[in-house]
Design brief:
By secondary structure, the protein is of the alpha+beta class. The protein has 11 helices and 12 strands. It has 2 domains: about 90 residues; about 170 residues, Aminopeptidase, CATH 3.40.630.30. Helix 3 crosses helix 4 and helix 7 packs across helix 9. Bound molecules: coenzyme A.
Length: about 290
C-alpha cells in the first residue's frame, strides 16, 4: 500500500511525531505511519542489500524498542523495502518515480546518440554500479553464461562450457551468492542499465590483505565501453575499504585475448602459470596468475 503526500503534510508529521530524529509517538493514521516509514528509507542506499540486523539497528535509532518490529513490517507492507523469503536480507524497493526518471533519461540518451555525445556522458547517465540483490539473479546468470560462451566457444567444447555454466551460473547458486556475503566472498556487484544487468563482478579475500577477482563478465555486445573498468573499480573499493586489501590477484585463462588486455591495461602483471581449475572429462585449461598493488 502506497500513499502520496505533500511536503506540507510531511513537515507536519515530522514536527508532530518526531524530535531530534527520533519518533516520540507512533501516529495512529496509516498515512502518517507511511510518511515516517518513507523518512526512514532515506537512511539507505538504493540497490544495496542490508541484513536484518542492520535494518534493526537503524530502526532503533528512530523508533523505540516497543515499536521497531512493527515498523519493520510496515517497510514491507508499504512496499518501501523488499526482502528475501527467509527475511535475512532487505533492500529498497525501487521507487516508481525513479523508474519514470530512467525512461526520461533513456530518451535523452537516444537523442544524445544522434548528436554523437561522448561515451562518458552517456555512461554517467545510464550505467549504475551496485551490490547485487535477489532481483538481479536472472540477469547475473544470463551475462555470465552469455559472456562465458562468447569468450570460450572457439577454444573449448560445448560440453565443457555447458558444464561450467551449469555448475557456477545456475539460479540457486547465484541466489545464495547474492544473499550470503563474507570476507571470502563479497557478493556480486552489477552494472545496471534501466534496471537490467549488463555486467557482473565478484571477488573475495584470499589472504590477510590480498583480494582476488573471482568472476567478471559483461553482456558480450557491451565490451570496450568502460563498464568492466567501473565494475573492477567498485570491487577494488570494496576490498580496500572493507577488508584492507593492498594487493589484488586474478586468474585468466591462458590465451584469453578478451580478458588479458583488459587486466594488463588496468595494471595487472603476470606472475606465473598454474594448471586449470576444472577438469571436465579430460578437458582442462591452464591459467595465468596476474597481480597488481591496489
Ligand atoms: C574483460 C572485460 C570484463 C572488460 O570489460 P570492458 O568493459 O570490455 O573493458 P573496459 O572498456 O572497461 O576497458 C577496456 C580496457 O582494456 C583495453 N583493451 C581491451 N581490449 C584490448 C585489446 N584487445 N588490446 C589492448 N587493449 C585492450 C582497452 O584499451 C581499455 O583500456 P583503457 O581504458 O586504458 O583504454 C570484458 O571485455 C569481457 O567481458 N571480456 C570477456 C570475458 C572475460 O574475459 N572475462 C574475464 C575472465 S577472467
Amino acid at each position: 500500500m502506497k500513499y502520496s503526500f505533500t511536503e506540507k503534510e510531511r513537515n507536519q508529521v515530522i514536527s508532530n511525531f518526531m524530535q531530534d530524529g527520533k519518533v516520540i509517538s507512533v501516529p495512529a493514521k496509516e498515512k502518517k505511519k507511511y510518511i515516517l516509514s518513507v523518512e526512514f528509507t532515506k537512511k539507505f542506499e538504493e540497490g544495496k542489500a542490508y541484513s536484518e540486523q542492520e535494518i534493526n539497528a537503524e530502526l532503533l535509532t528512530m523508533f523505540s524498542k516497543d515499536d521497531y518490529v512493527e515498523q519493520r513490517r510496515y517497510l514491507i507492507t508499504f512496499e518501501l523495502f523488499k526482502r528475501t523469503s527467509d527475511g535475512t536480507q532487505y533492500w529498497l524497493n525501487r521507487d516508481e518515480n525513479v523508474e519514470v526518471a530512467r525512461y526520461i533519461l533513456r530518451d535523452l540518451h537516444n537523442s544524445m546518440s544522434v548528436i554523437n555525445c561522448s561515451r562518458s556522458i552517456k555512461e554517467a547517465i545510464m550505467i549504475h554500479i551496485t551490490l547485487a540483490n535477489p532481483d538481479h539473479v536472472a540477469g547475473i546468470s544470463k551475462v555470465c553464461s552469455d559472456g562465458y560462451w562468447a569468450t570460450y566457444s572457439e577454444t573449448r567444447s560445448e560440453k565443457y562450457i555447458q558444464g561450467i555454466i551449469d555448475e557456477f551460473y545456475n539460479h540457486d547458486r547465484i541466489l545464495k551468492e547474492v544473499s550470503e556475503m563474507s570476507r571470502d566472498w563479497g557478493g556480486y556487484i552489477v552494472a545496471l542499465e534501466d534496471g537490467e544487468v549488463i555486467g557482473a563482478i565478484g571477488g573475495g579475500m584470499i589472504g590477510e590483505d590480498i583480494g582476488e577477482v573471482f568472476v567478471l563478465y559483461l553482456d558480450p555486445d557491451r565490451r570496450n565501453e568502460g563498464i568492466g573498468t567501473k565494475l573492477l573499480d567498485a570491487l577494488t573499493k570494496q576490498q580496500k575499504e572493507q577488508f584492507n586489501a593492498t594487493e589484488q590477484w586474478v586468474s585468466v585463462a591462458k590465451g584469453n585475448q578478451k580478458g588479458i588486455p583488459f587486466y594488463e591495461a588496468r595494471g595487472f602483471v603476470v606472475q606465473h602459470e598454474r594448471p586449470g581449475y576444472h577438469d571436465i572429462e579430460g578437458e582442462s585449461y591452464p591459467a595465468l596468475r596476474y597481480y597488481r598493488k591496489i
